[in-house]
Specification:
Structural class: alpha/beta
Number of strands: 10
Low-confidence stretches: 241-248
Largest sheet: 8 strands, mixed
Mean pLDDT: 91
Strand content: 5-15%
Order of helices and strands: EHEHEHEEHEEEHHHHEEHHH
Helix content: 25-40%
Number of helices: 11
Length: 316
Amino acid sequence: MNKELAPICLFVYNRIDETMQTIDGLKANYLSAESDLIIYSDGFKNSTDKESVINIRSYLKEISGFKSIVIRESDVNKGLAQSVIDGVTEVLTSHDSIIVLEDDLITTPNFLDFMNQALKKYFSTNKLMSINGFSVDTSPIEDLSTNDVFFHSRTLSWGWATWSDRWKKEFFSSEKISSNLTEQTLLSFKKNCGDDISRMLLDSLSGKNDSWYVRWAFRHFIEGKIAVFPRLSKVRNNGYGDSATHCKTIDVLKIRYDNEYSRVFHFSNDIQIDKNTHKRILNYYSFSYKLMYRFLLLFKPNGIYMILKDIKQKLF
């Protein structure tokens, strides 16, 4: 491995338990002691969150196990979207690449190996805009001995990386995005990236959600760029729940986790989207799949409770 590893950029708010699990996971990575960690701590939005934010910041000052640790504390509440956009932009002014995590993601010990190797492997591949550490199950999968990755037009936000020449703050401008929007563009965006994606984008532009991610996904689409994923996910999301910023509903994704933690990966040089893999991925975001998933929950322990909670979240 090249000694110049990409810095890790972690965004936290008020969830101490999830943040500690995220840090513990990172510290268990083979490359943690060689990696720089930059943490962005958002300011509290109200008096209710103040104590939690203070506790988080006290904990952050006790962290060790990395090559260097820098903590950026915001005096105001920016919200997740603005925090990510500003933080990633700042880091990429002085680095060629970056690895980004939020405070509810648990990584495998080989996560940093995969991300750094992928960043170096595809540095000159302009068709790729991002690297993902998280991935959904695309079974049946090819022989992992010959190919450890797949490609798709819909990038994700649960442990990702990119390069400085493929990130610009202006990508997230409502005016710039709106100037590229037509009915046909939205239909094509939905067809290529999932049934939920165009509505998510419109809600972001209207202020109904605070998603930086959907704007990043739209940038991939509008420029014809794609993302690379590991066939075995290197990230687990433990952030579904009432305290989550965006993941308050039911997790319908099926994941095939990496339990072997190999540090040797077979990266494909054939940068294209497999049609069967494309169909399996988009199925997770289809209305019919989500509806069936919730129906089957009725027959599982606590299933009715989860559904009622999900309905309440959507209505209120």
